[in-house]
Amino acid sequence: MDWPAQIRSGLQSQGLPPPAIAWIQTAMPNRTPLPPLPALIATVKTRFLAADLTNPALFDSPSPAFPPNASNPEIKEVKLTWDIPVQVLDIENLSKSKWEQVEELEAIARGEQTRGREVIRLPTGNEEDEFAVDSQATQSAVNGNERPGRAPSANATNATTKSSTHRLVLQDCKGQKVYGLELKRIDRIGIGSLSIGEKIILKRGAILARGTLLLDPMTCTILGGKVEAWQKDWVEGRLARLREAVGAENRNVR
């Protein structure tokens, strides 16, 4: 059986852009006998979503990318004429104060975030680990009596999320960067729920206006993934910058 071709076909059927056959061969497990095809597809998918899209070996050339004028603010509007895979380099919640963003990032740094009525402790080591739910904290949230030091209440978090507007920095396979702004709320986009290095498919018809991509659920498909090193550096760097900005604001108020 031609395993790389079968894996590539399986990835395409799941909506992923097809990686190069040569790259798939390097991403396959080095063991004999090989696991069943579904397990092979899942392994290569995980490694694809954790890869850097700018790796020239990842796709057959030429790979789908932004048009050359994508970031030009003088161009009023242009529609993408093909689907483009991108990765997230930065995310900012434009609806929250700097101090609220500090609290949010500190929760992520502790490996903790709120999702629905559960406090989710995120995996910090093995990428194959599943989420572990803190059931005691979950019950506290349901009863409305969260203990001090826990993540904020689920209702408050959900209310903020529904009304939030996020701005992303998106990078294509050629390394070109474009801002992405939520035109309509996309539930998966949020600090703590969207990771740095996460992969997104921008569909044909998505609108670029004044150098900014307008994101909505109809033209934006989030595939998942994360580049661990990028995520760690981003949380630490952004947290430091926000703390410095909050400290400067406090000094100016006095």
Structure explained in plain terms:
The chain has 254 residues and is an alpha+beta fold. The protein folds into three domains: 3-49, no CATH class; 53-95 and 165-254, OB fold (Dihydrolipoamide Acetyltransferase, E2P); 110-163, no CATH class. Helix content is 34%, strand content 20%. It contains seven helices and eleven strands. The strands form two sheets. An eight-stranded mixed sheet has the order 1-9-10-7-6-2-8-11, with no helix packed on it. Strand 6 (166-171) and strand 7 form a beta hairpin. Helix 1 packs across helix 2 (21-27), helix 1 crosses helix 3 (37-49) and helix 4 runs antiparallel to helix 7 (228-253). It is globular. 24% of the residues are buried. The model is unreliable at 115-160 (pLDDT under 50).
Structural key phrases:
254 residues; alpha+beta; OB fold (Dihydrolipoamide Acetyltransferase, E2P); 3 domains; 7 helices; 34% helix; 20% strand; globular; RMI1_OB; RMI1_N_C_sf
Rounded to the nearest angstrom, the distance between the terminal CA atoms is: 72 Å
Total number of strands: 11
CATH class of the largest domain, named Mainly Beta
Order of helices and strands: HHHEEHEEEHHEEEEEEH
If you compute it from the alpha carbons, what radius of gyration comes out, rounded to the nearest whole angstrom?
20 Å
| Total domains | 3
β-strand amount: 15-25%
CATH fourth-tier homologous superfamily of the largest domain: RecQ-mediated genome instability protein Rmi1, C-terminal domain
What integer is the average pLDDT?
79
Q: What percent of the residues sit in helical stretches (DSSP H or I)?
A: 25-40%
Query: What overall geometry do the principal axes of the alpha carbons give?
Result: globular
Could you please say which CATH topology of the largest domain applies here? OB fold (Dihydrolipoamide Acetyltransferase, E2P)
The stretches of 5 or more residues where confidence is low (pLDDT under 50) are: 115-160
Question: What order do the strands of the largest sheet run in, or round the barrel if closed?
Answer: 1-9-10-7-6-2-8-11
Give the structural class: alpha+beta
Second rung of CATH, namely the architecture of the largest domain: Beta Barrel
Task: Determine the number of helices (DSSP H or I, runs of at least 4 residues).
Answer: 7
How would a crystallographer describe the biggest sheet?
A: 8 strands, mixed
